[in-house]
Every structure is written in structure tokens, then in C-alpha cells.
Design a protein that fits this description.
Blueprint lengths: L1 E5 L10 H14 L5 E4 L7 E4 L4 H6 L7 E5 L3 H4 L6 H18 L2 E4 L2 H10 L4 E4 L6 H4 L3 H11 L7 E5 L8 H10 L4 E5 L11 H9 L5 E5 L6 H7 L2 E4 L9 H7 L4 E4 L2 H6 L5 E3 L2 H13 L1 H14 L5 H22 L5
Parallel strand pairs: 1-2, 1-3, 3-4, 4-5, 5-6, 7-8, 7-10, 8-9, 10-11, 11-12
Helix pairs in contact: 7-10, 8-13, 11-14, 13-14
């Protein structure tokens, strides 16, 4: 069986979670020899699996009726706080995503919130829930990666480093991250991420003005290559994940796999997503208080490490790979039964 994996992110700026999920998916499928893989224009497969939803998705899917899978990384609510004037375009956004989801024979919902969004739009598709997998070996903290990461960021070994990861946009809570940094000058704060959509980013002028006056303990790396991220995570002592809307975010789980406490924003999405408890904060003051506790209380920090270790269990790559393969086999068998001559 051959799987055709596609993503338009391969031809775009790659600093986003969808591209990371696409690369991780390819690596996961290649980890065993039970299936073959073609990527984008490299050939034709038995089942088509797309991570993006642009013209390429519709064009490439033409020859795969009955065998089209779309992993839903983006829902209409993901546009809010990401692109300017999103409320004005929201009726079109909802209509378009309904077409995207309905075009697929199976939509993979990466979280309960995503499944609800697909259902609310009335898309005519089968929904299967499969989380984003995490390759713990890829993100495992090593002394070498920590040393390289600190050198890359220009940090000394004795600095306590608080990490934020995501695009520089309002939805990701970068302004709240800066609030926390300004309140804790004795720590170093690093925001890893840039703007793949450049001027088409919500709050760009306001955030840029804030960055211009940011204190010296805040560092903005801009866009980074994916291969650099294990070093960036290893350079940090903890993560603040301040985002206001997420589906099944990779960054905080990658940070947890790298062995550090992660403080999430307390939002509804995570309550239905995670099987295990997690550190959470509602306001900037809550983030500040928890950060200070992790900096000064070794017992609390150790508890944060245990929580991170538990969190990653839910996203075990081997169990998730098995779900993918079972889905591929089912669709492949269904189309063969319906069109016996297809084989």
C-alpha cells in the first residue's frame, strides 16, 4: 500500500505548526517498512492524505475519490487573532472550510474542539479523531543540544530561560508573554517564531511598537529552521504557552518532551483535549506568579517536570501510527470492494 502525503507548506514559508505536523507525519510513516510513501508531486498512491486546504489539496485529490483524507489543523476560530479583519471575512471562511472538510472522505480531528467545529459547519464527511503524535527521541534534551542552543541564543549557562514559541501574532499571546517578561527582569525570556504571513498578521503594528520598547531581558529570534528547535527547547528551563486559541498544539508537547515545565493558558480547548492535568494560568498575573514559583521553588519545579512527563503519554507515536495505518487499510479495502477492477 502506498500513501500520498501532501502539504502546500512545502512550497511556502515553513515556520508554522502545520508544516511541523506534515514533516512529523512523513517521518512517522517511514519509521517502519509496512507501507510506501510519496510526497506531493513525487508520484501517485493508493490513499491521499493532505495537511493543507488550498488549491493544491483540491487538485491533487481529484484522482482519489473515496480515498481522500484531510487532517484538520485549522478551523474558522483559528483565523481570529491571526489575520486582520477576520470578523469581516468570517462568513466566507466558514463556507470555504465547509467545502474543504466535505471534499475529504475522512477528516481527521486532532482534538475534540476540532471535531465539534467540523460538525457545527455541517460538513458531509466521516470524522476520525487522531491526535498529533510526538517523537520523544527527536525532542529529548541533551547536554550537547543545551550548549548549542544557549550559544545560538547568546545566553550564559547560569541564566534562567523562559521560552515562548509561535508566530508573532495576537492569537499566540505574545503581548502577554512580554507582560510576564517585564515583571520578572531577573530571568531571560526568548520568543521563538516570526511572521510567515508578514503584513497579513493581526496586530502587527501594535506588537512591533511593543517590541521596539521591550526591555533587554526579552529576545525575539524571528523565524527559525525546524532542525534548530530541539536546541532552542533544550536551552530553556520552562515554557509559557500563552496562546488564546489552539486545537492540538505541538509546541508545548515538544517542550514537555524536552523535559521542562510548561504553563498553558487556561482555555476550554485543553479541558477536552488532555487526559492528564497541566499547569495553567488565566491572566498575566497568574503566569507571573507561576513563573516565579518555578524559578524559586525546587519542589514545585520537580512537580512541573512530572506533569510534563505524564502529558506526552497521550501522544505516543506508535499508537497513533497504528491508527493511521488502520484507516489507510480500511479506505483502500473499501474502494477495492466497490471497484473490483481498480486493483
Amino acid at each position: 500500500m502506498k500513501i500520498h502525503v501532501a502539504s502546500e507548506t512545502q512550497y511556502m514559508v515553513k515556520g508554522n505548526g502545520v508544516h511541523t505536523a506534515f514533516i512529523d507525519h512523513i517521518d512517522l510513516l517511514k519509521s517502519k517498512n509496512d507501507i510506501d510513501i510519496v510526497v506531493n508531486n513525487d508520484g501517485y498512491g493508493d490513499v491521499f492524505h493532505s495537511h493543507t486546504y488550498g488549491p493544491y489539496y483540491f487538485f491533487k485529490g481529484l484522482g482519489y475519490k473515496g480515498r481522500r483524507i484531510h487532517t484538520v489543523h485549522v478551523i474558522p476560530d483559528s483565523i481570529k487573532g491571526s489575520l486582520p479583519f477576520s470578523s469581516f471575512f468570517m462568513p466566507f471562511v466558514k463556507w470555504y472550510f465547509k467545502q474543504v472538510y466535505s471534499y475529504a472522505d475522512v477528516c481527521i480531528a486532532i482534538s475534540p474542539m476540532v471535531e465539534n467545529a467540523i460538525l457545527e459547519l455541517g460538513a458531509k464527511t466521516e470524522i476520525v479523531r487522531i491526535f498529533n503524535p510526538i517523537n520523544t527521541e527527536k525532542w529529548k534534551r541533551t547536554p550537547e543540544n543545551r550548549k548549542k542552543g544557549r550559544e545560538l541564543l547568546g545566553l550564559s549557562e547560569n541564566e534562567f530561560v523562559v521560552l515562548g514559541v509561535g508566530q508573532l501574532q495576537a492569537r499566540k499571546g505574545v503581548e502577554d508573554f512580554m507582560d510576564v517578561a517585564e515583571a520578572i527582569p531577573q530571568a531571560k525570556f526568548v520568543w521563538a517564531g516570526g511572521r510567515p504571513f508578514k503584513a497579513m498578521t493581526e496586530g502587527i503594528s501594535r506588537i512591533d511598537a511593543r517590541i521596539e520598547t521591550a526591555p533587554e531581558n526579552i529576545q525575539f529570534t524571528g523565524m527559525l529552521e525546524l532542525y534548530q528547535m530541539p536546541m532552542i527547547y533544550a536551552a530553556a528551563d520552562m515554557m509559557l504557552f500563552t496562546s488564546y486559541q489552539e486545537n492540538c498544539p505541538l509546541a508545548p508537547i515538544e517542550a514537555a518532551a524536552c523535559g521542562m515545565p510548561v504553563i498553558y493558558r487556561d482555555i476550554e480547548e485543553y479541558k477536552s483535549l488532555y487526559d492528564y492535568k497541566y499547569l495553567k494560568a488565566k491572566t498575566s498575573n497568574d503566569f507571573i506568579e507561576l513563573t516565579k514559583q518555578l524559578m524559586t521553588n525546587k519542589t514545585f519545579y520537580a512537580k512541573g517536570l512530572i506533569i510534563s512527563k505524564q502529558l506526552i503519554n497521550q501522544f505516543d507515536k506508535n499508537r497513533i501510527r497504528e491508527k493511521f495505518v488502520n484507516l489507510y487499510e480500511r479506505l483502500n479495502e473499501q474502494i477495492a470492494d466497490f471497484y473490483p477492477s481498480w486493483r
